[in-house]
Design goal:
It holds the Pfam family PAS. The chain is 47% helix and 20% strand. With 489 residues, it is of the alpha+beta class. The strands form three sheets. The protein has a five-stranded antiparallel β-sheet. A five-stranded antiparallel β-sheet has the order 7-6-10-9-8. Helix 11 packs across helix 12 and helix 12 packs across helix 13. The radius of gyration is 57 Å and the shape is rod-shaped. It binds guanosine-5'-triphosphate.
Length: 489
């Protein structure tokens, strides 16, 4: 049996050697422990830094108004902000870090959160994944409720994908409203009955609606880019350039927005009367003029015809058909007018009531047609006897006539009466059955002259003329008698 060796049996040098080795081992262990502890501390510090940086990153992306998402090179979800989750609220609660983009997308599609995917889910997914793998230009995605996001994706250096989504609903809706109103405007312009021509600030035509092409007779390409003066007739054609220049210099412009008549020109050279109204449309980019033009040519022609017809009607309603003298209606109007004027001004007025003598006998003897001819001849004599502009010769009825002589006193009236009888005598119209004037047609005239006064009236005055005529008849006819009703002027 081998006896046990005790330290006391070892030589002293070996003991010292062992002790040294032990001390060295202890030192080495202590060093290793310190290194391990330092490494652990470093790791903890790095982890803290990483957590702090991630927290800062999250804080940073949460401050973005846009939705933010990031997927790694394996297309697994790394990080996203709440704005991204708010865009797809139904599927977002199921998102987990590390989930694949395709699965996230399937969740969105299944929840019906992308409008164009509804009803064609697989096809849309395939197309969307292709875009996601090779992102290009930003694009618009429609979400339910006519909401819109603008999506921009790009690849990171490590092969991941960053997605930025901006809610552009308001912008898109504004554009939609604008497009709707533009479409409405286009429809109105193209179907409008009035011509609408737009020009730039230099007067070059930018657009013309179908009514404008019809009105002016041009094709659209013959008008576009041309000076709008080609549609104008003189004098507007020559002055338009100057007017436009002055308008651009801030002078003139008084015609803007006001409808006015305008001389236009058809392609054929035919003049057109149009109504023109021009408005200025000024944006930051440019200045345009919009002209609304309606054709007045037909209306103008119709107006002239109507005016002629009205004049004709007025003439007919105030003219005696046989003699073409004023009729009784016009006489009574003028008599009232002159009466009132005389009251106001104190001017004298005369009235001659003229009657053909023995006209019944004339008719009976020569026939009614000859009687008509004789009345026409008498009318002509009377007309020639009273030829001042203010005189009025009227057929009062039957074979009776009235001469209304404004601003004429008794002497003037007598002179006119004498002229009537002499002119008729000059015609020497035979009236074989008349016992007067050597078998010629003669006239009896009752006259009234004076200044109208209050308390009397035009009709009383006419009655006095009738009385004077009656006296002329009873005194033997073929004469003129003055009624003593007014103070002689
Ligand atoms: N041809 C024709 N005759 C007319 C017209 N208007 C009235 N007369 C006629 O004129 C005649 C007027 O006759 P009276 O009123 O008796 O008067 P008179 O025969 O002229 O006799 P005194 O006036 O007394 O001299 C009638 O025979 C009417 O028929 C007309 O438009 N044409």
């Amino acid at each position: 049996m081998t006896p046990a060796v005790t330290p006391a049996d070892l030589p002293a040098s070996l003991a010292w050697g062992l002790l040294l080795a032990l001390l060295l081992a202890l030192g080495w262990l202590a060093h290793g422990w310190r290194r391990a502890r330092d490494a652990q501390r470093q790791c903890e510090a790095l982890a803290r830094t990483a957590r702090a940086e991630r927290a800062e990153l999250i804080e940073g992306i949460e401050t973005l108004s846009e939705a933010y998402s990031m997927f790694d090179a394996d297309d697994r979800l790394l990080i996203y902000n709440q704005a991204f989750a708010r865009l797809y609220p139904a599927s977002a609660p199921h998102w987990r870090p590390g989930m694949r983009y395709e699965d996230l997308l399937r969740g969105i599609i299944a929840a019906g959160e992308v409008t164009p995917a509804i009803g064609q889910e697989e096809a849309w997914l395939a197309e969307r994944m292709q875009m996601h793998r090779a992102p290009g230009e930003p694009w618009l995605q429609e979400l339910p409720g006519n909401r819109w996001v603008r999506i921009y994706e790009r690849k990171t250096a490590s092969g991941g994908t960053i997605g930025i989504r901006a809610d552009v609903t308001e912008l898109v809706r504004t554009q939609q409203a604008l497009q709707t109103s533009q479409a409405q405007l286009r429809a109105i312009i193209s179907t409008a009955g009035v011509a609408i021509v737009t020009t730039d600030a230099e007067g070059r035509m930018r657009s013309a609606n179908p009514a404008a092409l019809r009105l002016f007779g041009y094709e659209l390409d013959e008008m576009l880019g041309q000076d709008v003066a080609m549609l104008m007739d003189e004098p507007e054609r020559s002055t338009h350039g100057h007017y436009l220049l002055r308008f651009r210099q801030g002078q003139g412009g008084q015609l803007m927005g006001r409808a006015r008549e305008f001389n236009a020109l058809h392609k054929s050279g035919r003049p057109l009367t149009v109504q023109l109204s021009v408005s200025e449309v000024r944006s930051e980019a440019e200045q345009l003029f919009v002209a609304v033009i309606s054709d007045l040519t037909e209306r103008k022609r119709f107006e002239i015809e109507l005016q002629h017809a009205n004049e004709q009607l007025l003439r007919l309603s105030t003219t005696d058909a046989l003699t073409e003298l004023a009729n009784r209606r016009l006489l009574m109007q003028r008599l009232e007018d002159e009466w009132r004027r005389g009251l106001r001004t104190g001017a004298p007025l005369s009235l001659l009531l003229v009657d053909v003598d023995y006209f019944k006998l004339y008719n009976d003897h020569y026939g009614h047609q000859a009687g008509d001819d004789a009345l026409v001849a008498v009318a002509s004599v009377l007309r020639n006897s009273a030829n001042r502009p203010a005189d009025l010769v009227a057929r009062y009825g039957g074979e009776e006539f009235v001469l209304l002589l404004a601003q004429t006193d008794t002497e003037g009236a007598r002179a006119v009466a004498t002229r009537c009888r002499e002119l008729l005598a000059g015609l020497a119209l035979a009236h074989e059955l008349s016992p007067l004037g050597g078998g010629l047609l003669t006239l009896s005239i009752g006259m009234v002259s004076g200044v109208p006064y209050r308390g009397s009236s035009a009709s009383q005055w006419l009655a006095q003329a009738d009385l004077a005529l009656y006296q002329a008849k009873s005194q033997g006819r073929d004469r003129a008698v003055v009624a003593p009703v007014f103070s002689e002027a």
